[in-house]
Design goal:
By secondary structure, the chain is an all-alpha fold. It is 81% helix and 0% strand. The radius of gyration is 18 Å and the shape is elongated.
Length: 151
């Protein structure tokens, strides 16, 4: 293989592994949300969200129970999403199957537009900013590898 060919393969492999790591991190983060929701370790997250809906008031026990459940559902969804990303990045994306690129690109855009729009609508700007950072980190390898999927 020529020097250019090795450089191209190394470049693609770097971004493919980056995407793989993003998938694993999303999965682990989702699992942590499921396990830590309702604990003092999760309070940093609650301090960002609670004032938007409850202002300076204390969150009542019924609402705390709902929060713990809904964050558990969010975490489970994130964990599953991360597993899908990990498997697609490890197998189909690595094999440069065009559907894998399309799936990653469209899936991330659908998530970002919907999640960020509802966050902005409800004035949960913390989540909108977080989503933007995650989109950049996750979409960067997808955008930078597009040329490998056009044949």
């Amino acid at each position: 293989m020529s020097e250019d060919g090795r450089r191209i393969n190394n470049n693609f492999s770097f971004w493919q592994r980056w995407l793989l790591v993003v998938g694993v991190v999303i999965s682990v983060s989702g699992i942590m949300i499921v396990l830590l929701s309702g604990t003092p370790l999760f309070d940093m997250f609650n301090r960002q969200i609670d004032p938007v809906f409850w202002g300076p008031n204390t969150v009542e026990d019924n609402a705390k129970g709902f929060q713990q459940w809904i964050y558990g559902v969010l975490g489970a969804t994130m964990a599953g999403w991360g597993v899908f990303m990990t498997f697609i990045a490890h197998y189909s994306f690595r094999n440069k199957e065009k559907w894998a690129w399309n799936c990653m690109f469209v899936g991330m855009l659908v998530w970002f537009v919907l999640d960020t729009s509802i966050s902005i609508f409800h004035k949960v700007y913390f989540n909108a900013v977080f989503n933007t950072g995650l989109l950049i980190i996750a979409m960067l390898p997808v955008v930078l590898t597009r040329k490998y999927f056009i044949q």
